[in-house]
Amino acid sequence: MNDKDRELEKKLGTMEKPSLHPEKKEAIHQLLMKVNNKYKRKKRSRSIMKRFVAGLTGVAAIVLLVFFIMTSSNEKPLDHTIEEPIPDETVTIENPETDKEQNEITDNEKDEISDQEKDVKKEPDKATSNPFEKYQVFSDYMLEHPGYLSEARTFYKIENTNYFLAYGHQAHAVNRYELFEVKDNTVTLIRSVVDDADFERIESIVHLDNWKELMIDYLLKEVKPTEEIFFSFDNPQSETEVTIEDQSYMLFPINVTKDKIYFFKEGEGLWVKLYKDEATINMYGEEQKAIRIQE
Predict the structure, then answer these.
(1) Segment Disordered: which positions (predicted)?
(2) How far is it, in rounded angstroms, from Cα 188 to Cα 172?
């Protein structure tokens, strides 16, 4: 108990004492002391809070001051210097004669380019000018037919000659070897033989490494000559529409004989063989088509 408490208690002691029960007196006394203590604690806490706020404000002021000092020291002064453009002192002197010569050269170059373009335009497309390439005459093929008219051929070009060797199955029964000769715009079949016609001789050839060259020599020397048109562009006809299994094709016809027509498709090769001979009609009841198998 401090001096103020003692003073308060002394004053209370000098007051007239009401006629109260001793227990009530003690209760009132204790209540007054609690109120006094509570007031002093509240006053003390307010004082501490004021000191804390004052200290925090001082710290914030110091931080701001340091920040401004640091930022101001890092700033660079503005450079207000403006670079003046350096004038181009080069003076172009026009020479009418030189300009005229340059224009003449340019015009000549244009004329040369124009002539070159004309020459390029005049050159025909090789695929169009060469009918063998346009219709891929020597393209390998397989023709499908339910009977003996099915066939397949693979072509082989003999270097430095006008000959093409063709070989493949005939009706899936025998192997046929044919020799074609190219003259101008016509391809002619000049030799043809099946392997069972001279089986041992042909078998002795086809098992050798250079059998294709040897087969050509054999066909020319030992097989009976024949002559049948395979393709011709001497008297070119127009392409004709041919319907095959409900689908129409524009094909180039070759009249091999009056009873046999070959049809070539542009960019593809032999597409259809049409047989109208009496033997075929007697066997099948109508003309027959061996049709290209599309792989």
Answers:
(1) 1-20, 79-128
(2) 24
Q: Residue 44 carries which side chain, given as an amino acid letter?
A: R
Query: How many domains are contained in the chain?
Result: 1
Residue range(s) defining the domain that contains residue 143 = 131-292
The token duo for 242 is 């041919």
Q: Is residue 225 part of a domain?
A: yes
pLDDT tens-digit map of 87-131: 555 555 556 565 555 655 566 666 665 665 555 444 545 445 689
Are residues 292 and 161 in contact, defined by beta-carbon separation less than 8 angstroms? no
pLDDT digits (tens, 9 = 90+) for 174-184: 999 999 999 98
Model pTM score: 0.57
* Residue 85 pLDDT > 90: no
**Using an 8 Å Cβ cutoff, are 150 and 171 in contact?**
yes
Token code pair at residue 273: 């063989």
Residue 102 lies in a domain: no
| φ/ψ bin of 140: left (φ > 0), alpha (ψ from -120 to 50), beta (otherwise) | beta
Residues 170, 114: Cα–Cα separation, whole Å: 56
